[in-house]
Design a protein that fits this description.
The protein has about 500 residues and is α/β, with parallel strands linked by helices. It has two domains: about 260 residues, Metallo-beta-lactamase, Chain A (4-Layer Sandwich), CATH 3.60.15.10; about 180 residues, 3-Layer(aba) Sandwich (Rossmann fold). It has 16 helices and 22 strands. A seven-stranded mixed β-sheet has the order 6-5-4-3-2-1-22. The protein has a seven-stranded mixed β-sheet with strand order 7-8-9-10-11-20-21, covered by helices on one side. Helix 4 packs antiparallel against helix 10 and helix 15 packs parallel to helix 16. It is globular, with a radius of gyration of 23 Å. The structure holds zinc ion (ZN). Zinc ion binds next to loops.
Length: about 500
Amino acid sequence: MTIAIQFLGAVETVTGSQYLVTAGERRILVDCGFFQGSPNEVARNRMPFAFEARTVDALLLTHAHLDHCGRIPSLVRAGFTGPIHATPGTLDLTEIVLRDAAKLQDEAEARWRRHHPEAADTSDEETAVERDDPGMPARLRQADPEAATMSRAALYHATDVDATVRLFRPVQYEQTLQVAPGITAQFHDAGHILGSAIIELTVTDGGVATTIVFSGDLGRCDTPILRDPTPISHADFVLVESTYGNREHGPMAQAVEDLAAAVSEVAGGRGVLLVPSFAIGRTQEVVWELDRLLRDGRIPKLPLFLDSPMASRASDVYLRHPEDYDEETAALLRSGSSPLEYPGEQFTNDAQQSKAIRTQPRPFMVVASSGMLTGGRILHHLKDFLPDPASMLLFIGYQGQGSLGYAIQHGAKEARIDGQIYPVRCKVRSISGFSAHADEHELEDWVRNFARAGGAAAADGRPKTVFVVHGDPEAASAFADRIRGDMGLEVQLPSYLQEVILRP
Ligand SMILES: [Zn+2]
């Protein structure tokens, strides 16, 4: 039996994750994400799939970010009727992300039909793409937010998402899943966002097993809420992401220190701390850190307003899945505290409540989207607080060039919002240590687990080939060189649409 893998996305780029494994007559798809960024890449979302959708036996999904799950409703429209396997946390988050994506596409299409394509995006929602990620190529970070998910006609609608959700089949971490005759899969915690997984796929033919490990997106070690990425030491073939293949992160401890300092400073001046944030992952992490700082007595207690409907829905999903927490967060829960909630935090349900925040007694904190000030409720808070010297705008994510966030971060003295000019008199700070991705050292450590197994004790653990994927070309090739040079492993940098026969 011939086993092959075709690279249908997230090669030479960080978006559009999609890998097709063929084993004899069987076809398994791993991830089915949106391409985001430049028009050339976004155009790939409109191209037909490289295979007959109805011939795919099953889809395995690593996690809920749009660049890994965004095209699934298109796959279902194209005739896919098989099961979609992912962890319960991933499936819950994916439903939120896909419903939001369908809504944004409908809105964009309606705007386009009204012949006002230049109209401002007033949507409150985030698209769950890691646009703030410095590991992304500049052309992706700089893309117009609309270009990130859509161009003109909607790719799918809410009814397609309904049909997609009906195919969801939850699988627990470490459970052995029978995917198809002779094919099993195991999901291991990737520590990236809630429910994220490394997928280990095993094809057995004539008593010979071939194992392919898909890293998915790997998280950082020692971040709040989630466990560290699971070390895996045996595989015949490995696909490893390389988003940060040539960069290292600042220490988490410094990021937390800087967050505490910002809160204290605003409290002392009776101002407002305004934190633009991304709905899934980042918001929950910041709330967790604020709660811990408060418990440790390192910050004064300020009221916290969470002003993003999508962040609220994502936070609900985080609360429903304590089985995914790391030991530290689980212990806090057992001791009776609620680490994912800041005491007295207030959610806003509609735009009226959001606008009423300005009248609250100071000092207080607001976390609102979008993360790069490209739209959403953050905009009307900016109108109120940018001109206020007692207040502070605190960036905790990357600001893409061309965004309002980038301009203010780089010293703009005034900001144009909805056609009006507002002076920037508030304090502006940035913290760079919060990231959901492993950096070059953490990626290398994860791959080293396979190399170590190549010793005399377990000579068969060493992969025959490591495919470096999900990276900007410079990051991917720098990381490939390190794996080859430092660990002596066989490495390939696949190209878009390339098919590789996997020899057992
Ligand atoms: Zn991701």
